[in-house]
Amino acid sequence: MAKLNFGGTEENVATREEFSLEKAQTVLKEETIAIIGYGVQGPGQALNLRDNGFHVIVGQRQPSKSWDKAIADGFVPGETLFSIEEAAEKGTVIQYLLSDAAQIAMWPTIKKHLTPGKALYFSHGFGITYLDRTGIVPPADVDVILVAPKGSGTSLRRMFVEGRGLNSSYAIHQDATGRAKERVIALGIGIGSGYLFETTFKKEVYSDLTGERGTLMGAIQGIFEAQYSVLRERGHSPSEAFNETVEELTQSLMPLVAENGMDWMYANCSTTAQRGALDWKNKFRDAVLPVFNDLYDSVASGKEAQRSIDSNSQPDYRVKLEAELSELHNSEMWQAGRTVRSLRPENQPAAKEQEVG
Q1: Taking 70 as the threshold, does the pLDDT of residue 353 lie above it?
Q2: Which DSSP state fits 345?
Q3: Active site residue: 55, 124, 173, 329, which one?
Q4: What is the pTM of this model?
Q5: Domain coverage including residue 215
Q6: 180 and 215 belong to one structural domain
Q7: Is 124 in the active site?
Q8: Model confidence over 256-293: pLDDT tens digits?
Q9: Residues 264, 164 share a domain
Q10: 8 A C-beta contact, residue 55 and residue 32
Q11: How far is Cα 226 from Cα 231, in angstroms, rounded to an integer?
């Protein structure tokens, strides 16, 4: 474990240089890793672990689209693909990757297979942090650990295939065997993490719920909608409004920010852009800071967790969700986005033909 300096603060991190894949394979050589759930995080983690040489099985409800996807990905019914209960029985490490609502529903089934010495693995701190609401209370004689990739399962897999790694946090809630730390780091390396930084279950879920509702999804979509609407209402075309709101950000600026940081971006843009950005950033910060404080308070109080549990448990939840997502899908901004994306050079027929030739 290395201590690295992040803006003046030291943090414990684990890297692939100090904790090699070979070391991870040695730590987990006797383990059977049962991936419970093959939806959002399941496929990326399962495939990366399998490709890295670990013994992986999948537990998934049948029939389902996820069961069919697992088969398409090479998992074999009766050999590496089982019912949730059978996989939980066989696994020595149970990676509990169902949705938060499904984790609550399946907990009685999983708990009875948590025999002494096993490890219960999460990629989200929700179930344990809000255990008074979820009822997920692990037995005292199992390790309870977390590796949370900082991105979707799709991104985790894509970056792994490209030879890169998605950063992850890790946490230990319960060390019953004395091996929880080496297990959790080995699993983090095995799923293809870039580096692993230390956290707690509570801090993971607080930051994750804030981020999802904030700059990762909720706030950024709200900002997109606001700027796009202003430009359209002031007479700009859908193409111009979308390009200035979304396309330039995602295709031109964010890749450079990812490579070099926002400070570099400020130093390497036009003087007009610099001046405007510096003048307006504080106004936006001051406008949204109270909103972020309200958001964090709502997360910390458990209100966000309870809202999620209540809404996800409603029988018509999926119908209502599809209606909300359809509204987003059919909005003018994202309809314009589909057209703009289709016009990117790499999506043009001539470019594809030239590439093939």
Answers
A1: no
A2: G
A3: 124
A4: 0.91
A5: 211-348
A6: no
A7: yes
A8: 999 999 999 999 999 999 999 999 999 999 999 999 99
A9: no
A10: yes
A11: 9
